[in-house]
Amino acid sequence: MEAVTRDFFLFLSKNKTLNQLAKNRCSHFATGKIIGGTDFASSIACIKALNTQGLSVTVDHLGEFVDSPEIAAERTEECIETIKMIYTEKLDSHVSLKMTSLGLDIDRNLVVQNMTRILETAEQYDIMVTIDMEDVTRCQATIDLFKQFKDLYKNISTVLQAYLYRTEQDLAELSKMKPFLRLVKGAYKESPKHAFPDKADVDTNYMKLIEKSLLAGNYTGIATHDENMIEFTKTMQRKHHIPLDQFEFQMLYGMRTNLQQALVKQGYRVRVYVPYGMDWYGYFMRRLAERPANIAFAFKGIIQK
Predict the structure, then answer these.
(1) N or C: which end of the chain has fewer CB within 10 A?
(2) Is 132 an active-site residue?
(3) Recorded E.C. number(s) (predicted)?
(4) Is 291 a catalytic residue?
């Protein structure tokens, strides 16, 4: 049943008609519930409110798979301006972005050029930039780009997905660089050739990655709403005396807000992933596909707001 639900929401995420309808008529439904706002300026109040509650943030301008250099340039400028506004508004926020939004599917040199401009700005204002991971066909290119930029800049991090077989080896390689890593279970539909098909195996691998990353000394973002994974991390921290400032929990805006607050009160760092922009529909469907329990959390949050 879970696989059917996942496939259903992934199918919906790719429906162009529904995506356009959501963009044109339903953005008011998502704003303040699923996304911070339709642009970064309109998201600032949301971010400040989260910061006031003791929650850190990472923001993401929604929109990927860019197929023109002009749009990639626009996304680059958007990210640069966002970094500057984070600094000016004194927000406790990082920036997350996808390499396809900067032109990965067009030309690698274009991505390097655009990302270099972003990271130069990030270094100037001391704002962390996280390269989000996409599907397995873009995984190696993303890791290669991260390694290239990590040698040059300090304000850069990336994401590893627990459902991929390759990730344990990727973690071992990247740990040599003592990176800031966000660990997620994974939200894309991949074949059994590349990814664990069973949830139990993904969970087991996720716990293994959390342990290996923390013991390697990496600053680690454990991005999950799964309380079993959260409790595992807490147990790991106590068992191995991991400093509380070596990791953080990360959750999605609008989901598990009570759990976020409870973790803050317990003394843990918590970062909320706040997307913004008009292209919210596909993002929302993928989050629902990622874990069926998110469906209940998401709609509970929508009703309460």
Answers:
(1) N
(2) yes
(3) 1.5.5.2
(4) no
